[in-house]
Specification:
Length: about 325
C-alpha cells in the first residue's frame, strides 16, 4: 500500500517537469537566442551604392546652381571678368532691375504660352500614336517605332537645320507642295513660333509615345474588351479607362515635357536666328543667353536662370500637390 502512493506521488511530481518542458522547450529558447539580428549598417547600404552617382550629380548640378545663385547677387560684367574692376555685392539689385524691365515680362509671357502649346501638342501626338501602335500589325508598328526613335535620336541642331531646309522660302519642298511661293515662315512672329513648335513636337513625341505605349501594354486586355463590349468608343475608352489607369505615367511625361519645353534654346536660336527679328521670338533661355554673353551682363543672365529654376520647381510642386489631393499615389 505504501508503494502505491509513492509511485503516484512520483508520477505527480514528474508531471510539472513535463509540463514545464513542453511549455518552454529548450530548443525554442536556444533558437530565439541565436536568431539572426538585422545588420546595423543595412540602412546605410543603399547610400553607399548611390554615393558615386550623388557625387557626379553634385558636381554637375549642385555646384553650378550654387554658382548661378551667387553670381545673381553680384555685380559681374566683362569688367569684373577681365579684372578691370572689383566684384561687388549687389544683393537683390539684379532682380529689381530684371523685374522692372518690360521686355522681361513680355518674354516670360511668350515663354509660358509657347511651352504650354508645346506640352499639349506633344502629349496629344504621343498619346494618339501610342494608341495607334496597339491597333496595327507588327510590321507597321516596327516601322513607326523606328521612325520615332530616329526623330528622338536626332540632335537638336541637326533637326532644326533640316526643318529650316524643308520650309526654306526658295528651295524648300513644303512651299512648293502648298503653292505659296517664296513665303518666309521665320519672318512673322506667330509663323516662326509655329514652325519651332512643330520641330519641338517632332523631336519630343517619341518619348511620350514609347512611355504611354508601354503603359497601355500593361493594362489587362479584359478591361479593354469589357469596355468595347459595353459599346464605348475609342475616345471614351481612352478618357474613362486608359487615362485614369495611366495617370502616374502621364504625370511623369507631363512634368518632363514642361521642363524640356520651358527651357527650349537650340530650336529657337537656330531657327529664328537668335530670337527673331527685333527679338520677337525670344524665350527666357535665349533672353538669358543674350544678356549674359551678347551684352556681357552675366549677373542679369544668372538672375534669369534662377527665376527659371524657381518657376519650374513651383510648377512641378503645384502639379504634384494637386494630384495628391485627388488621392493619386506617385
Amino acid at each position: 500500500m505504501t508503494g502505491v502512493p509513492s509511485g503516484s506521488g512520483g508520477a505527480v511530481r514528474s508531471r510539472p517537469r513535463a509540463v514545464r518542458g513542453w511549455s518552454r522547450p529548450r530548443g525554442g529558447s536556444r533558437k530565439s537566442s541565436t536568431a539572426p539580428r538585422p545588420f546595423r549598417g543595412a540602412a546605410g547600404t543603399p547610400w553607399i551604392y548611390l554615393a558615386p552617382a550623388l557625387v557626379v550629380l553634385g558636381g554637375l548640378l549642385v555646384y553650378p546652381v550654387y554658382q548661378l545663385g551667387l553670381i545673381a547677387f553680384l555685380e559681374y560684367t566683362q569688367a569684373q571678368v577681365s579684372g578691370g574692376e572689383p566684384t561687388t555685392f549687389k544683393g537683390f539689385g539684379n532682380y529689381a532691375e530684371l523685374f522692372g524691365d518690360g521686355e522681361f515680362w513680355r518674354v516670360l509671357l511668350a515663354t509660358v504660352v509657347f511651352a504650354a502649346a508645346c506640352v499639349v501638342s506633344t502629349l496629344a501626338v504621343g498619346c494618339a500614336l501610342a494608341v495607334l501602335l496597339t491597333r496595327v500589325r507588327a510590321l507597321p508598328r516596327l516601322a513607326l517605332m523606328l521612325a520615332a526613335l530616329g526623330a528622338w535620336a536626332t540632335p537638336a541642331v541637326t533637326g532644326s537645320t533640316v526643318w529650316l531646309l524643308l520650309f526654306d522660302p526658295d528651295f524648300g519642298p513644303v512651299n512648293r507642295m502648298l503653292g505659296i511661293g517664296d513665303h518666309s515662315w521665320t519672318y512673322g512672329r506667330y509663323s516662326a513660333f509655329a514652325l519651332v513648335l512643330l520641330e519641338v513636337v517632332w523631336c519630343s513625341f517619341p518619348f511620350v509615345m514609347v512611355t504611354v505605349y508601354a503603359g497601355i501594354r500593361a493594362v489587362p486586355s479584359e478591361v479593354l474588351e469589357a469596355a468595347a463590349l459595353d459599346g464605348a468608343s475609342q475616345w471614351r475608352i481612352w478618357r474613362s479607362v486608359l487615362a485614369p489607369m495611366l495617370r502616374p505615367i502621364l504625370v511623369v511625361v507631363t512634368i518632363q515635357s514642361v521642363i524640356w519645353d520651358f527651357k527650349v534654346f537650340t530650336q529657337i536660336y537656330v531657327m529664328t536666328g537668335g530670337g527673331g527679328i527685333a527679338g520677337q521670338n525670344l524665350v527666357l533661355n535665349v533672353y538669358a543667353y543674350q544678356k549674359a554673353f551678347a551684352s556681357s551682363q552675366y549677373s542679369l543672365g544668372s538672375a534669369i536662370g534662377v527665376v527659371m529654376l524657381l518657376i519650374l520647381l513651383a510648377v512641378t510642386l503645384v502639379y504634384l500637390r494637386l494630384l495628391r489631393r485627388q488621392g493619386e499615389e506617385l
